[in-house]
């Protein structure tokens, strides 16, 4: 007899971008690796941190933000400025880990071959300690630049993504796109990832520009691929509800 039963739906992680989760089929499938891609200053860090922050605060998840680039103080200063206070309750369950200094030391001492090992070690220890639900790696560009081992970078990336998948943590990987390219990542990260969120800053006339967000892909999800205006106001992101506000 044919088995026509559908697989159990997987739990979804909300982005807490008001209106956008409905366009993703309820949120991001738990355990996915999602690229958050965009040019410089398109609020990649803010959007990813916002997802962690609200999931920690509202549904008691555990999270870590692993910054390879921006130092901890400046990241927290920025996100507090967005109305997301890094208070005692949050700081216990949302760790902001700064590897920007370690990266420089690894470079100075010619230890690039240890780079992936160092990252894995930090994630493993944090996961053992906290039981992570969510992780941000900021950024893929720095991670790739540091991969100076003997292996092909694409193979190293494939193995790294596979390792993250094995942990079962929903992971957001920030990818800074170059201005003169439409590629969401340089070494095949867009094929390896389960999902891609693309952030843009579009010039709409001689004076104005608008932020936009689009879900380019999200495995196992019946999602919209439209561009939506991304509006930030008083500590939360939202997309407009009215159809006239949607760019196609
Ligand atoms: N308090 C605020 N409210 C709204 N927008 C803000 C606020 N503070 C900064 N911004 C905007 O956020 C942008 C930076 O956001 P963010 O650091 O998340 O971007 P990013 O894409 O991660 O940047 P980078 O490419 O430098 O990593 C600033 O350029 C500014 O336009
Ligand atoms: Mg950033």
Question: Can you describe this structure?
Answer:
This protein has 248 residues and is α/β, with parallel strands linked by helices. It has a single domain (12-207, 217-234), classed as Rossmann fold. It has nine helices and 14 strands. The protein has helices at residues 20-23, 44-59, 72-81, 88-93, 100-108, 115-130, 140-146, 153-167, 189-192, and strands at 12-13, 17-18, 28-29, 33-38, 63-67, 94-98, 134-138, 170-176, 195-203, 209-218, 227-229, 231-233, 236-238, 246-247. A nine-stranded mixed beta sheet has the order 6-5-7-8-4-9-10-11-14, sandwiched between helices. A hairpin with a 2-residue loop joins strand 12 and strand 13 (236-238). The protein is globular and about 55 Å long. The mean pLDDT is 92. The structure holds adenosine-5'-triphosphate (ATP) and magnesium ion. Adenosine-5'-triphosphate (ATP) binds at residues 38, 40-46, 78, 81-82, 176, 232.
Summarize the structure.
The protein has 248 residues and is α/β, with parallel strands linked by helices. Helices cover 35% and strands 26% of the residues.
């Amino acid at each position: 007899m044919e088995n026509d039963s559908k697989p159990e739906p997987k739990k979804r992680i909300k982005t807490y971008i008001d209106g956008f989760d409905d366009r993703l089929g309820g949120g991001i499938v738990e355990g996915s690796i999602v690229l958050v891609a965009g040019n410089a200053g398109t609020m990649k860090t803010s959007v990813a941190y916002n997802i962690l922050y609200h999931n920690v605060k509202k549904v008691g998840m555990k999270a870590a933000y692993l910054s390879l680039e921006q130092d901890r103080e400046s990241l927290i200063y920025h996100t507090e400025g967005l109305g997301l206070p890094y208070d005692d309750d949050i700081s216990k369950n949302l760790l902001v880990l700064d590897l920007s200094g370690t990266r420089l030391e690894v470079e100075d001492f010619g230890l690039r071959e240890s780079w992936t090992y160092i990252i894995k070690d930090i994630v493993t220890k944090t996961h053992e300690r906290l039981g992570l639900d969510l992780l941000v790696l900021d950024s893929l560009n720095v991670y790739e630049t540091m991969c100076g081992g003997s292996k092909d970078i694409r193979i190293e990336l494939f193995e790294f993504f596979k390792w993250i998948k094995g942990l079962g943590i929903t992971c957001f990987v920030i990818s800074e796109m170059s201005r003169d390219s439409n590629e969401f990542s340089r070494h095949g990260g867009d094929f390896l990832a389960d999902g891609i969120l693309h952030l843009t800053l579009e010039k709409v006339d001689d004076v104005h520009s608008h932020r936009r967000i689009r879900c380019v892909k999200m495995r196992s999800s019946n999602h919209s691929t439209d561009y939506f205006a991304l509006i930030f106001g008083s500590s939360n992101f939202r997309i407009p509800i009215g159809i006239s506000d949607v760019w196609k």
